[in-house]
Design goal:
The structure holds two protein chains of two kinds.
Chain A lengths: L1 E5 L31 H21 L3 E4 L13 H11 L4 E8 L6 H14 L4 E6 L5 H4 L7 H17 L4 E4 L4 E5 L13 E5 L3 H8 L7 E4 L3 H17 L9 E10 L2 H19 L4 H4 L7 H10 L10 H7 L3 E4 H15 L3 E5 L7 H26 L8
Helix pairs in contact in A: 1-13, 2-3, 3-5, 6-7, 12-13
Chain B lengths: L3 E7 L2 E8 L3 E6 L10 H6 L3 E6 L16 H14 L5 E6 L1 H12 L4 E7 L20 H8 L6 H6 L6 H18 L9 H4 L7 E6 L7 H10 L4 E5 L6 H4 L1 H13 L1
Parallel strand pairs in B: 3-4, 3-5, 5-6, 6-7, 7-8
Antiparallel strand pairs in B: 1-2, 2-4
Classes of the chains: A alpha/beta, B alpha/beta.
Chain lengths: 394, 260
């Protein structure tokens, strides 16, 4: 089993009346940055980096950063900057950039170059996530969302070729045209840093990842158990159709986890922060979350009809905990639920979000330590029982 | 209401076309709302003209959005469509996005347009132009507020319903995507259009809702200033969509201008 500590680096200092949804319909894009205090930011960034670095000491396999723009939910618009800081302060762990928003960049060669730099700087510890960016981020960047899907596909191809083919060569795409593709440095890992795909919940993406030409780890984010199961089943099905067996290391789950001494204590300590994450940090305006053409026509229609299912503002934390959007509970509860999920859904990668929303440093450390000492070793043992042949490769 | 619906195979893309009436051909280019229905406005005009109402590529049941990147691709599309319909020239009227498209068509091919009507047309920008609200970020009720003089009217709630059917939802999503393709950034304008308006030499009428909250009358005045000899008329108690919200006075203004 692989377990990589996830972090969003949220900005917790929201106005006291932020629960007024009329006044603050979203914490993204149109929520004014006058609410961001850079003096508080100094403390936050350093604290959050400390937490990730401490992840190495606690025995996590990797630490994760990610890209989001113009919001209080996650203040890492340039994840490669954070990854660079981590390369120098960690020695062993993987550094997972989950991921760079390829279509949002003016040029994907910048991603190819930066990831190659990070890979060389870190001695080959980089995992390179590719994402399209959240729909709202097309408003942030003024980027035409109707090209999102084709820009992603083209950027993906260009980056892989830039990493693997000797340059200079030329690339003629619809969105990117370069006469001289010849990046310096080249990445250290061969054939290139692993590509992982975090996804909100697209079946198409899961199937694309599971294709034998890619076999990219597919990471589900904030989804309830039953949806994750459906998505992962589609990946297994794709592998079967192509006559290969899907590895548990092709499936990952990203979820907020809070573990404490008892179920009741976990709820008492953790629920408020999970509420911050889903009810404030992830407070979206539907039309901005799904801008025109961001999803395929069929997916757009499906989402427009079923949005109520992912409208977290309508769900209580207890409801979300029960459905599996998050895991809150005692050591026993958290162990049991994650082990069951691992067994039933077949995943081998867990990305726990242990600093959640406005969770302060002391509570975050308590959560991290308890998870790392009591839950993680148990899950590793369970995984090794389930997949004895893989026990070593973990 | 006598009109027919057909599909034109335009160089491999299926284009939905409604048409009706008899007389000089009148090509109507619809707005971002995608009004592909034989509305009273078209019925009124069809008494004096042969009205053609095609759906832009990507709207309603038309294909071909894959051939559209900019507003200029729509100009190619409409010269092709006019060729396919055997229209050497036509009277051309356009609303909002369709008005912008009509203006571009007139800039590129003034010889194909006998008379031009631009209704609450987007397409222009200049330093200090009034800011248009972001239709791509607006919810249904917000869109009603932006588009209609009376957003609480039965009409407004029928055109933009709170609980659309699956079919209506599909049309809205397609319209949003096809509009965003040409109008996301720059936001519903062509930076070069204003300086090229001198190329529009045919008689031109500008029709504006007097209470347009999306494209204010300042844009109408800018078109008027740029198009030599053009006239600007307003429709009273009307928002951004005169053919829909006030069909009678709008059809009268358009019809009389075309008949003169």
């Amino acid at each position: 089993m692989q377990c990589h500590l996830f972090h969003l680096m949220p900005y917790p200092h929201l106005p006291p009346d932020f629960d007024d949804m009329k006044k603050y319909p979203t914490s993204w894009v149109i929520f004014s940055n006058k609410h961001y205090d850079p003096v508080k930011g100094v403390e936050l960034y350093n604290r959050y980096l400390d937490e990730l670095e401490y992840g190495e000491e606690l025995g996590f396999d990797g630490v994760c950063v990610n890209e989001h723009h113009q919001n209080a939910y996650g203040t890492m618009p340039a994840p490669n900057v954070m990854a660079a800081a981590l390369t120098r302060r960690t020695k062993r762990v993987k550094i997972l950039v989950l991921g760079n928003g390829l279509p949002l960049r003016d040029h994907p060669l910048r991603v190819a170059e930066e990831i190659a730099m990070l890979d060389v700087m870190s001695g080959g510890r980089i995992v390179s996530g590719f994402v399209r960016g959240v729909g709202v981020e097309y408003f942030s960047m003024g980027l035409n969302p109707t090209y999102s899907r084709e820009r992603f596909a083209e950027a993906h191809d260009l980056i892989i070729r830039a990493w693997t083919e000797p340059g200079p060569f030329d690339f003629e795409g619809k969105h990117y045209r370069v006469r001289y593709v010849n990046i310096w440095p080249r990445p250290l890992q061969k054939p290139h840093p692993p590509i992982w795909i975090p996804s909100f919940g697209s079946r198409d993406t899961g199937v694309w990842c599971a294709h034998p030409s890619r076999k990219y780890p597919f990471l589900s984010t904030y989804l309830p158990d039953k949806t994750v199961k459906t998505l992962f089943d589609a990946c297994f099905e794709t592998a079967r159709e192509h006559n290969y067996e899907l590895s548990p290391y092709q499936l990952g789950r990203l979820m907020p986890i809070y573990v404490a001494e008892t179920d009741e204590q976990a709820r008492r300590e953790g629920n408020q922060h999970i509420a911050w994450l889903f009810h404030r940090g992830l407070r979206y305006i539907f039309e901005m979350l799904f801008p025109p053409g961001y999803l395929s026509p069929s997916a757009s229609l499906f989402m427009a009809k079923s949005y109520h299912e992912v409208d977290w503002t309508k769900l209580s934390v207890d409801q979300m905990n029960e459905a599996g959007y998050c895991v809150v509970g005692s050591v026993d509860t958290v162990r049991r639920r994650l082990a069951n999920s691992m067994k039933e859904m077949g995943w081998g990668i867990l990305l726990p979000l242990l600093q959640i929303g406005d969770m302060p440093a002391d509570r975050t450390l308590k959560n991290m330590k308890l998870f790392a000492s009591e839950v993680l070793p148990y899950l590793r043992a369970e995984f090794n029982n389930l997949h004895p042949a893989m026990a070593k490769s973990a | 209401m006598a009109y027919k619906e057909e599909f034109i195979d335009l160089h491999g893309s299926k284009i939905q076309l409604l048409s009706g009436g008899a007389g000089e051909p009148l090509l109507y280019l619809h707005s971002a709302g995608g009004e592909i229905a034989w509305l009273p406005f078209f019925e009124m005009l069809s008494r004096d003209f042969k009205v053609y109402l095609p759906a832009h590529p990507g709207f309603a049941k038309s294909q071909g959005l894959d051939k559209i990147d900019t507003i200029h691709d729509l100009v190619f599309h409409y010269t092709d469509l006019m060729d396919a319909l055997g229209l050497k020239t036509a009277l051309v009227a356009g609303l909002s996005l369709g008005g912008w498209t009509a203006a571009e068509l007139a800039v590129h091919h003034p010889e194909r347009i006998r008379k031009l009507v631009l209704i609450d047309a987007v397409g222009l920008y200049w330093n200090g132009a009034p800011r248009m609200p972001d239709i791509f970020a607006a919810s249904g009720p917000q869109t009603r507020e932006i588009v209609f003089f009376d957003p609480n009217s039965e009409l407004a709630k029928t055109v933009i319903p709170d609980n659309p059917t699956t079919e209506q939802l599909e049309m809205v999503l397609k319209a949003r995507e096809a509009t965003a393709r040409v109008g996301w950034n720059p936001y519903l304008y062509d930076p070069r259009l204003l300086e090229r308006l001198y190329r529009i030499t045919m008689p031109t009428l500008l029709v504006w809702g007097d209470s347009d909250r999306l494209v204010s009358i300042e844009y109408g005045k800018a078109y008027q200033k740029g198009i030599k000899g053009s006239r600007l008329v307003t429709i009273e108690k009307c928002g951004h969509a005169p053919p829909i919200e006030r069909p009678e006075p709008t059809a009268k203004a358009v019809g009389e201008f075309f008949k003169q």
